[in-house]
Amino acid sequence: MAGRPIHTFAVVRSEQLTPHMIRVVLGGGFTTFTPTDFTDSYVKIVLPRSGTDVSTLPTPLTLDSFKELPDEYQPVVRTYTVRKVDRERGEISIDFVVHGEHGVAGPWAASVKPGDPAYLMGPSGAYAPDPAADWHLLAGDESAVPAITAALEALPADAVARVVVLVEDADHEPALPLPAGAELTVLHRATLAPGEGLAATVRALEWLPGRVHAFVHGEAEEVMHGVRPYLLKELRLSRDQVSISGYWRRGRSEEGFRSWKAELRAAEDA
What we know:
Blueprint: E1 7-18, E2 21-27, E3 42-47, E4 76-86, E5 91-97, H1 105-111, E6 117-124, E7 135-141, H2 145-154, E8 160-167, E9 181-188, H3 198-204, E10 212-219, H4 220-234, E11 242-248, H5 254-269
Parallel strand pairs: 7-8, 7-10, 8-9, 10-11
Antiparallel strand pairs: 1-2, 1-6, 2-5, 3-4, 3-6, 4-5
Helix pairs in contact: 3-4
């Protein structure tokens, strides 16, 4: 990661989507940034510490450029899905879940103003809806909504899909561009009883005939330990039919989450 180029953008505008979700639109970085066609395209947002003068750092700008600074000035790096790319305008939109002062990227998104700098690495990605699939399963919590929305926009108007979204309550329900053959189930975290949730709801879905292509992302414990065994072991879907991974884990920072994922991979490979 250290040697990957950091692309310099500027904030164009921001928009409050729901009480706890803000969209930040960035522009000006497309001279070096090349977007992908994956609907789960994501970037690493590099957040310099307050007081860091990025203009004085060695170029081309990478994480190595910060190494000569004291530890307390090392930047924070957070991973976010790209919600939308407007190639004609040279703009990229990223949606942030914001819960007050909790976290790092959320408060940054809530406080930025037009003209403020933004620094991105990437993009990366691996999933786009398979046009040969008979139907699509799209499931996740708030962190997966941008990728789910992008996937729905990429589907044909008559596509068959089953969509499950977990949000805090009715005020946080996203507006999703559902194709004609889609059915949406929205779960409210605030009213779920023990044993209910994303995994239980996916398990309860009527399984349609034909080949499915599934995208399931969100809180890692529920996705990796709840939904993943059901799809891969019980239903025996092939790995090319499934894009499933945790975007975050309850109670852990992104750094701690990376360690948890590495431990999980090592355990599975043992």
